[in-house]
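Quick start: what a row looks like.
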Amino acid sequence: QEMEFNVIVACEGMEDWEQAKEKLEEYIAKYPEDEEAEKEAEFLAAQFAKNKNLIQLSKILQVLNLVKVYR
């Protein structure tokens, strides 16, 4: 169980959020009583939200750069 949890943490450390999410889902299905897994799920949710916001910001900046080019 500990090794499986450590795999999730390692994926997070490599910022492989999709793999971490997949492993965490498998882990929770196997060990639903683990309270640490709930904390990891909250952390991952925050990371996905942060990454989504960064992608949106990047798109906005690209549009702004295009506007500057055409001015």
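That is the whole record. The two ends are 59 Å apart (CA to CA). Residues 56 and 62 are 10 Å apart (CA to CA).
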